[in-house]
Protein: Apolipoprotein N-acyltransferase
Amino acid sequence: MGTMPTPAIAALLGLTLAACGLPLPWSFLTALPLAAVLAYAAAAPTRRGVTARLFWAGFGYFALHLWWLGAFLHQLLGAAPLVIVLFALEAAFLAGMAAVAVKLTRTPTGRIWALAGGWVILEWLRFLGPLAFPWPTLGYTLLPTPAIQIADLGGVLLGSVLVTFTAASLAHAWTGRPQIGRQQQGRRPLAPAVLAAVAWAAALGYGATRTPGEGPEQPMRVLRVTFDAFGRASGGLTAQEQFSVQTAASLNRPPGSVIVWSEGAISSPGTRPAPGQTIPAFPGPGISGVGGSEQLTPPGPDPIRQPATYRQFNTVASLDAGGTIQSVSAKARLVPFGEEFPFRPVLGPVYRVIEASLGFTLASMIPNSNPTPLTLNGVLYGAYICYDSVFPWVARALANQGAQVLVNPSNDGWYQGWGVQQHFNMGRVRAIETRRWIVRSVNQGVAGTVNDLGQPVQTTQGGQDLQALDVRPKLLTGTTPYMRLGDWPALILALLMVMYGVRQDRRWNSRLN
Structure:
């Protein structure tokens, strides 16, 4: 391994880190390869070397963790190599974080801790901005263990703190002995590792003592449909055909049941849904995704050169037994370059080329900055759409407004391989953070229910035929520490790791003096 080029070693360590990620059952071992990544990056002889090593480790990490995106881009555009740009961009963010960390610290030990704390802060930043993409958050790797239950205290990022703190402790124990000349002397510093072991024992003990909440049950019928996502988008599968299939599967359900349909299950071309509108023949009461487009401007005198412009919308609505819409909520987090098109002043020429090939204007949807629960028959449903499920603040905002159960209409027909299971597993943590059940209806993914401990109760994900599950989620109330405090506990702990790294530098300087 010593004869391998530095980028190859770093990339191999990143691949090893991804091989301990979701959805693999041994993902709880992530701290071990992460310790190797931190130690190898921190040991670089120059500041530039630290950033380069973390870039290549990040590139290997994202390339394996998100390999399924290449298959998606190939099917969508026939351009799988484009995914390399995403891998490089995400790796560049890690390198940028490393550049800041090495300005704060100069010793390998100090850098280890600064990189560990910076990693968590970078994960938090991935929840923000037009390029938000929080998919590879380390805290999710705790899902196979009871330790994931600490998410109700500080969210998934508190799990990331546990992982990075453990990794930094191991790397510190390996590299942090006092050095005289070229020889390391003295005992290995084991105090951080002991503290990490105590933190794991506390997290596991806390998780083992959590019990499911009690509340009234709400009968629901959840659909898992198997429509071709690309056929739906291109119009090859008509909206009426989809509606008829889903209606047939929704009939003859248990008394009092509320049906749940997936993202975009109802098409509403030209009209954004609003309370009071009626969807004829809808077998309500129920909750369904409603998608479509609305015209922004009419065509000009020359429709070829001045075509009409449209904006897509992606909403979820509650409808009563007569199909009348009771309440509506729009998608809160839009998919970059899919539902919103950022940096148009800079990327305008690229967008124009794509628009010319597609024959229509790429207009960004309007995100819902204030999601509110849907109301139906006296129950508050915290409904959020597909990509929203990987942003903890959406479910947190809905639960803080009294949502008694979370409902997640999704469409995983775009994904292949790991992407489907990763999306479902990440969404499970929203149940833990808010202590609410989740009901999920999906196109070609995992449908069913997850209880307030994040445990799947009734799910289905296989087969090519439409499936309907009759489920009975519990309606719960109450407030968790995470609902009150958000990500602040995790961010404070991450900053403390950075400060500990700076302190290690000062101790080193005091030894030299």
